[in-house]
Amino acid sequence: MIRYRRLSALLLGIWLGAGILTDVAVTQNFQTVDQFLQSPGNVNTSIRLNAIGRDRERVLLRRNAAEENNRIFENWERVQIGLGALFFMLLLFGERPTILMLGLCLAMFAIVVAERFLLTPRIIDLGRAIDDLPAADPAVKKFRVLHGFYSGLDILKLLLGLGLAVRLTIKPKQDKDRFAREYAATTGRLK
Asked: What is the pTM of this model?
């Protein structure tokens, strides 16, 4: 017999764990640029960076890191849509899902869809446009607001997922007479 509850918990764990790893990876991309410029690893690279100018290189390397992050988010959001759909199907056709569990899953799925189709394209476009703008520019402020909103939704999705994980791991109280009632209903016999 397939253990839908266990399979659902495993899939949810993969979804949440990979999401956390993705968030860590994208924040590390920008930090790696500064670490690399501070300590490039060998003398020849350091000499070349000094000749070009580390501040000039920093702009290019940060732009590259931003593009890497864009691809990571776009690809991860596509994967999440698939994971969310599969997870919902497991819950729906599994062992007696509750409305709460289905609702939490749908809320997580809705967040991913909103991020993928509403927020990410706008954040990417603004991120590319603001590189040469001063920090006080309205486009920079809008980028920060959208980025903060995205981060807030991601945290909400994680919290919903943790709530769902708790709900999946707490087994409902077993009904001792359930088997007898189901047997009686299928055979037409009553106690």
From this structure: 0.85
Report the alpha-carbon distance of residue 19 to residue 157 in Å, rounded.
10
The 3-state secondary structure of 65-121, one letter per residue: HHHHHHHHHHHHHHHHHHHHHHHHHHHHHCCCCCHHHHHHHHHHHHHHHHHHHHHHH
The string of DSSP letters for 14-31 reads HHHHHHHHHHHHHHHHHH
Closest residue by Cα to residue 72 from 144, 23, 2, 11: 23
Instruction: Quote the CA–CA distance of 121 and 39 in Å, as a whole number.
Output: 34
Distance of CA 172 to the CA centre of its chain: 28
Q: How far is CA 44 from the centre of its chain?
A: 39
Q: Mind listing the pLDDT tens digit for each residue in 101-152?
A: 999 999 999 999 999 999 999 999 999 999 889 999 999 999 999 999 999 9
CA-CA distances (angstroms) from residue 178 to 4, 55, 174?
Answer: 19, 71, 8
Cα(139)–Cα(126) distance, integer angstroms: 7
